[in-house]
Amino acid sequence: MILGAFTNDSFLTERNIISILGASAALAMVVLAESLVLISGKFDLSLESVVGIAPALGALFVLPAAQAGFGTELPVAVGLLCIMLVGAGIGAVNGLLVVKLKLNAFIVTLAMLIILRGLLVGATEGKTLFGMPEAFFTLATSTFLTVPASVWLAGAAFGITGLLLKYHRWGRALYAIGGNQQAARAAGIRVDRVLLGVFITAGVLAAVGGLIQTGYVGAINSNQGENMIFTVFAAAVIGGISLDGGKGSMLGALTGVLLLGVVQNLLTLAQVSSFWIQAIYGGIILLALMIARVTTGRAQD
């Protein structure tokens, strides 16, 4: 923030700060989803594809055939509900494969990422979807006290989740499972049920993130969410979410999101080419890991 203030006079203006928050809202929802999965000791790489496929299917059910839709022309409310159900359904499939069949979470969700990416391209026929009802854009376009509704929603989601993790037995169970699944099971925690619920919740949150992204962009293309998972993991790691499970906080994860949002905005104001942003994100991750290693004095497994 200090660097930004010296780099560009418009950086600390109210308009630019709101712009950073609005641009970070979709990412925040997906980071929240991934953070819950990581705390439980698992991975979910498919969340970036959920960001694309969930709102796309909702739009295709609503749009007429003349606008590349399925021609069903379902009511808008049903289309929005479909977005949430698609996210929940994908999360449930991931959860069943990982929890019940005991398959490797990394490989399962990587395969699901590829499957869903292919389904998105096939369903949209590689086209960009336009002309969705205004309700698909409401979260990104409507404001309260000049701040987009998507920002308020993301803030509320992080706040509520943070309280649940700290004070509710579900949150304590999640940390226990991520720390030592066998010990958690021996303590009477219903590990399978909690993990399945985490995957479903993550799918729904990613679907909401996709809806926010749709409103922010104003359309849905066949590569929506592509490569987003790298930024999601960057924000989570920078925010102190442990890849080993059982550690991390929502405040830390939110800090990671905002740091990346500020960095991207600063680079844009400094007229740095977007091609360099991913490389800079990687450097930030390495720097964050080294700082954590020095400050904690503990080796990182």
TrEMBL record:
State the superkingdom: Bacteria
- Transmembrane ranges, per UniProt, are 17-38, 50-70, 76-98, 105-124, 144-165, 194-216, 228-243, 250-269, 275-295
The listed locations are: Cell membrane
Broad class of the protein's primary localization: membrane
Report membrane topology: Multi-pass membrane protein
Pfam families, sorted? BPD_transp_2
Query: Which keywords accompany this UniProt record?
Result: Cell membrane, Membrane, Transmembrane, Transmembrane helix
Q: What is this protein called?
A: ABC transporter permease
> Can you name the source organism?
Streptomyces johnsoniae
